[in-house]
Amino acid sequence: QVQLVESGGALVQPGGSLRLSCAASGIIFSIYAMNWYRQAPGKQRELVATITPGGTKTYEDSVKGRFTISRDNAKNTMYLQMNSLKPEDTAVYFCNAQHSRGYWGQGTQVTVSS
Q1: Do 57 and 75 meet the contact criterion of CB atoms below 8 Å apart?
Q2: Fewest CB within a 10 Å sphere: which of 8, 37, 50, 55?
Q3: Quick one: which of 11, 30, 34, 3 has its CA closest to 111?
C-alpha cells in the first residue's frame, strides 16, 4: 500500500520559516519525480516545486529564491524548506509522487499570519 505522509505545517508569522516533510512508503522512491503542490481557499491546486529522480529542481515563480525542495532517497523522504514566508503562501501543501501513475498525500496546513 502506497502512503505519502506530509508533516511540518504550522502557523508562522510573515518572514518566518518552515520545513515540510513528505515520508513515502510502498513505492520505489528513488525513481519517482516528487512534487509539492498547494491549494489556498477558493483557489485551484498549484504546483510549487518539483525534484526529478536525478535531482533537477524547478520552482513556481512566486517561490523562487525563498523555497528549496530536496530529497533523501535513503530515507524515502522529500522536503520543502520555506523561508521568508508571506501571507499569500497560506495554503494546504500536498506531496505528490509521479511515475507511471501518481500518488498524493493528505496535505498539511501552512498558515502565515501575524
Answers
A1: no
A2: 55
A3: 11
Per-residue pLDDT for the chain (114 aa), expressed as one digit of tens each?
999 999 999 999 999 999 999 999 999 999 999 999 999 999 999 999 999 999 999 999 999 999 999 999 999 999 999 999 999 999 999 999 999 999 999 999 999 999
AA letter at 35: N
- Rounded to whole angstroms, the Cα distance separating 70 from 57 reads 8
Would strands 77-82 and 46-51 be described as parallel, antiparallel, or unpaired?
unpaired
- Residues with Cβ < 8 Å from 41, sequence gap 6 or more? none
Strand partners, 112: 12
Q: What are phi and psi of 113, to 5 degrees?
A: -160, 150
42 is written with which cell numbers? 477558493
